[in-house]
Specification:
mainly alpha
Length: about 100
């Protein structure tokens, strides 16, 4: 376990504290950790769905740029992920 200090908007702090008071989370720290996990899981699921879509229909540069913006990633990272996803294990493309 690692302790960090964060700053959040007052309304989010109140929401987290209300969740703890209602018994839906053991602590504010646990509530924040759950939120981070949920966001990471949602992002991973979105990337997996986009990869599946890419298999069926290659992505245009404009769509790759929009994906990068939505994911908060550099466009090059999205393009690289889309390209490497099509490679078989071992990193070589089929002939």
């Amino acid at each position: 376990m690692r302790r960090i200090t964060i700053s959040i908007d007052e309304d989010l702090a109140l929401l987290a504290e209300a969740e703890v008071r209602a018994g839906r989370s053991p602590s504010v720290s646990a509530w924040v950790a759950d939120a981070i996990r949920a966001k990471a899981r949602a992002r991973a699921e979105l990337v997996a769905e986009l990869e599946e879509l890419e298999e069926r229909e290659p992505t245009s540069p404009e769509v790759a740029a929009a994906m990068a913006r939505a994911l908060g990633l550099p466009r090059a990272a999205v393009v690289r992920a889309l390209k490497t996803r099509n490679r078989p294990p071992g990193g070589r493309r089929a002939a």
